[in-house]
Amino acid sequence: MKRAIASDSILYRTDKSVLERQRECLKYHNQLDQAGDNSNFAACFSNSIDGSIGPDPGWENGWSCFGLGSLEMNYGTVAEDKEIPSSSSETWRSGNFKKRKLESVKGVGALMEEDGKQNMNKKMTGVFKEEEEDDEERSKITEENIGSTTKSITKKKKVIKEQQNSSNGSSKSDYIHVRARRGQATDSHSLAERVRREKISERMKFLQDLVPGCNKITGKAGMLDEIINYVQSLQSQIEFLSMKLAAVDPRPDFEAVDDIFGKEIITAQTTDYKNVVMPSQEMVNSGYLQFNPIQQVVQSSEDETTINMFDSDPSGEARPIWDSEMQNLYSSLGFDQGLSPLPTYTNCQPLSGSMNTNNLKMEM
Amino acid sequence: MQPTSSMKEEFLKKWQMGIQICGPSIDNTSVSERKKVIKLSADVAMASLRKGTTCWSRALIQKTATEDNSLVRQMLSGIKAETLINKTLPKKTLCHRKIVRRSKKILMRRNARSASEEAAAKAKKLVKRKTQGLRSVVPGGEFMNNDVLLIQETLDYIVSLQTQVNVMRSIVDATEAGIER
């Protein structure tokens, strides 16, 4: 028994790998053999090395314990060689079979948690839930599974791999996929908050494209400021333009408004040549006739141009763009007839849609 | 996302219709009256383009309906004016001011802040104030309690404002050119 204890102490002392320990055991055993000692030890050690734990009648309590221990150690190190090499000495020293097994499984659990942090999608073995859950919940489930140590490690690993594959394949449209990066909070509230913020920033990008001079500004407050200014300027522009439309003509009121109508009708006709004839057009034209014979000419020339436009494009499918039409109209008005275009008119010329506030200020 | 030509056409048609509706009543009125009518009809035309799908258009229609109900009704005859005018906007979220203030105080006391946190809080406050400003600018903004919704509506509103301005400007130019001749 003293020798047995000595061998135990040797084994405990060494913090080496299993093979080395077993080699030492063999050495010790050989020494014992050379000393001509009991052959029971040899049988015991061979058994332990082979890995089969058959009940041996010659065994004493301490030795059986040792044999089991070596086996377990073997098992543990095999498992840990695959996963976590650091905890091998601890498992050996604890000497308790169940504890060690638990620890080794926990090692796997730790590995799983690490995987979770690396955003590997997993669904757990016993649970088989279809839903996509965030990382924290997943890791919780893994911990639960650690509690039930019924399944072997290799099997678990396989299952995890399968789950990874399956979860990569299955993507449902009902769910918003949110992935928390390393170090980001993963509870549902902060996830929702993050989604909201991303949405807002996305919309803000659109706004940046829309509002001129907004793409140089960084920061949400500045951008909001710019947007407010822009909207207000647009509103005031509308106000101003409607004022201008109301008071555009030095002639009596009625004629002025009718003038607007006439122009509108013309433009409407250019945009839609199938348009129903407006009843007020005749009136407007007659008004022009009465007041300004030159304008009548202009009007007719306009009509001609529009007719030409639609003759060239009878199908109406590829209708010319509104802006280009307008520009055609006005070029025919202003330039083709050899009349000198006015400076204000040329300033107002950007009909192509890019209106700027500076223009308005200049006019004002 | 620039205003499209089809949108402009549609707006122009609607607007024209609106001005025609109140055409006879314009006759012997002052400039400001006419301006009001023109602006109102333009607003309704712009709002009716969206057919009540957006919050701001509904709010705008309701606002104009309080000013000139008959005009709005006639202009919106094609698309169920009643439903649009009487459509309820999303409810405004109200909280008691005193309670809010008290809770803020408690929060302030709870976390004594460092300098960086203070700056962040200031920035947040600024953004909040700006958002409130945007709410007041966009019609019906008070009803959008959701930031995402507010920004979306602002996007849409800006696009339609741009169409309106474009069309109006071109018409003004046309009339001016006509007068010069």
UniProtKB/TrEMBL annotation, chain A:
**Single GO molecular function:** DNA binding
**Keyword GTP-binding attached:** no
For the keyword Nucleus, the answer is yes
One GO CC term on file: nucleus
Extract the SUPFAM superfamilies matched here.
HLH, helix-loop-helix DNA-binding domain
Subcellular location per the Swiss-Prot or TrEMBL entry: Nucleus
Record-annotated BHLH domain positions:
184-234
| Keywords, comma-separated and alphabetical | DNA-binding, Nucleus, Transcription, Transcription regulation
Question: According to the UniProt record, where is the region Disordered?
Answer: 128-174
* Coiled coil location: none
Q: Which ranges are annotated Polar residues under compositional bias?
A: 162-173
**Protein name in the entry:** BHLH domain-containing protein
TrEMBL record, chain B:
Q: Which residues cross the membrane?
A: none
Which Gene Ontology terms of cellular component type are present?
nucleus
| GO process annotations (BP) | regulation of DNA-templated transcription
**IBH1-like N-terminal domain boundaries:** 5-66
Q: Which UniProt keywords apply?
A: Nucleus, Transcription, Transcription regulation
CDD domains associated with the record:
bHLH_AtIBH1_like
Keyword Methyltransferase attributed = no
Which superkingdom, per the lineage?
A: Eukaryota
Q: Where in the cell is it found?
A: Nucleus
Per the record, the major location class is nucleus
Q: Which InterPro entries match?
A: bHLH_AtIBH1-like (IPR044549), IBH1-like (IPR044660), IBH1_N (IPR059002)
PANTHER family named in the record = TRANSCRIPTION FACTOR IBH1-LIKE 1
**Mind telling me what this protein is named?**
IBH1-like N-terminal domain-containing protein
The species this protein was found in: Microthlaspi erraticum
